[in-house]
Amino acid sequence: MKKGLVVDREAQMIGVYLLAEKQTYRGIPRKKVLKKTKIYAGDYVWGEVVDRSSFAIEKVEERRNFLVRPPVANVDKVITVMTIKMPEFDSFLLDNLLVVYEHFQADPVIVFNKIDLLTGEETKTLSYWTDLYIKAGYEVIKVSAAKNKGIEELKDYLKDSICVLAGPSGVGKSSILSALLGIKLATREVSEKTERGRHTTTGVKLFPFGENSFIGDTPGFSSVDALYFVEKKDVRLYFREFLRYQCKFPDCTHTKEPGCSVKEAVKKGEINCQRYTNYLKIIKEDLSIAKQLCQ
Ligand SMILES: Nc1nc2c(ncn2[C@@H]2O[C@H](COP(=O)(O)OP(=O)(O)OP(=O)(O)O)[C@@H](O)[C@H]2O)c(=O)[nH]1
Ligand SMILES: [Zn+2]
């Protein structure tokens, strides 16, 4: 049997990209397959080529994960796109996104776009946030989709992975997609957006790019309340820098417990106050706890 990746999933359409020959076929699932599972973009499937255009799907591999928005399976990386300005950076929004994607076991990479717009002072602001998130344990890549800066570095980082874009409206998700695919911006922007808008479909396409990478054309969350997906008690597990500390109680929520090493770290400046405040805000805790530590 041959291995393929579902790259197109819309209504009755299943597009299967055969990894060895780099060709897309129309996937026709056997009845026994459909009885067992639904098929999503990002699914790895096994089967046989039937004729020049069709591929019979015999088996769907177990999914490593499944992102509800966009509906894509086996997502390795989520490119969370942010900007310092236009629109202004919002760390609370970013931290919510990071929590949700960590929860889905998709590795979030923070991409600051539109760096071409920044003045000297704003570049300092960019460095501040970049350092903060790198220290916290995240990968940060600075790009300008408009000037095609940093795109190769991003491509390298996304090597061998299935990825999707997320982030607020206007940060340049479509522009980054175009840059990664090497498609001219204007045409794509127009066609994709009106196309999706008109049909209001839930379909997703994955496009091959770079070295064995695939990227979804339907963006993920623009904003999200992490508690919609993650239990309050688990949010602490998705702040990477918190995991470096051991508190007196293993299930410490880092709020009111004695012997909390995370709070100690906030006090000493090892954990950033803004991050800790956002943590409290996400779990809807009393923000005065942070104020006391961050004087
Ligand atoms: N200066 C500058 N402008 C950019 C850059 N990337 C995108 N833009 C512009 O920012 C605007 C928004 O870009 P889009 O790619 O449509 O942003 P989006 O995140 O897909 O927006 P939504 O579809 O609303 O979610 C457009 O006018 C782009 O031309 C960049 O690197 N630098
Ligand atoms: Zn603690």
Automatic annotation (TrEMBL):
<protein>
    <recommendedName>
        <fullName>Small ribosomal subunit biogenesis GTPase RsgA</fullName>
        <ecNumber>3.6.1.-</ecNumber>
    </recommendedName>
</protein>
<keyword id="KW-0963">Cytoplasm</keyword>
<keyword id="KW-0479">Metal-binding</keyword>
<feature type="binding site">
    <location>
        <begin position="113"/>
        <end position="116"/>
    </location>
    <ligand>
        <name>GTP</name>
    </ligand>
</feature>
<feature type="binding site">
    <location>
        <begin position="167"/>
        <end position="175"/>
    </location>
    <ligand>
        <name>GTP</name>
    </ligand>
</feature>
<feature type="binding site">
    <location>
        <position position="260"/>
    </location>
    <ligand>
        <name>Zn(2+)</name>
    </ligand>
</feature>
<dbReference type="InterPro" id="IPR030378">
    <property type="entry name" value="G_CP_dom"/>
</dbReference>
<keyword id="KW-0342">GTP-binding</keyword>
<feature type="domain" description="CP-type G">
    <location>
        <begin position="64"/>
        <end position="224"/>
    </location>
</feature>
<keyword id="KW-0547">Nucleotide-binding</keyword>
<feature type="binding site">
    <location>
        <position position="247"/>
    </location>
    <ligand>
        <name>Zn(2+)</name>
    </ligand>
</feature>
<comment type="function">
    <text>One of several proteins that assist in the late maturation steps of the functional core of the 30S ribosomal subunit. Helps release RbfA from mature subunits. May play a role in the assembly of ribosomal proteins into the subunit. Circularly permuted GTPase that catalyzes slow GTP hydrolysis, GTPase activity is stimulated by the 30S ribosomal subunit.</text>
</comment>
<feature type="domain" description="EngC GTPase">
    <location>
        <begin position="73"/>
        <end position="222"/>
    </location>
</feature>
<comment type="subunit">
    <text>Monomer. Associates with 30S ribosomal subunit, binds 16S rRNA.</text>
</comment>
<comment type="similarity">
    <text>Belongs to the TRAFAC class YlqF/YawG GTPase family. RsgA subfamily.</text>
</comment>
<keyword id="KW-0378">Hydrolase</keyword>
<keyword id="KW-0699">rRNA-binding</keyword>
<feature type="binding site">
    <location>
        <position position="252"/>
    </location>
    <ligand>
        <name>Zn(2+)</name>
    </ligand>
</feature>
<keyword id="KW-0694">RNA-binding</keyword>
<dbReference type="InterPro" id="IPR004881">
    <property type="entry name" value="Ribosome_biogen_GTPase_RsgA"/>
</dbReference>
<keyword id="KW-0862">Zinc</keyword>
<dbReference type="InterPro" id="IPR012340">
    <property type="entry name" value="NA-bd_OB-fold"/>
</dbReference>
<keyword id="KW-0690">Ribosome biogenesis</keyword>
<dbReference type="InterPro" id="IPR010914">
    <property type="entry name" value="RsgA_GTPase_dom"/>
</dbReference>
<dbReference type="Pfam" id="PF03193">
    <property type="entry name" value="RsgA_GTPase"/>
</dbReference>
<feature type="binding site">
    <location>
        <position position="254"/>
    </location>
    <ligand>
        <name>Zn(2+)</name>
    </ligand>
</feature>
<dbReference type="InterPro" id="IPR027417">
    <property type="entry name" value="P-loop_NTPase"/>
</dbReference>
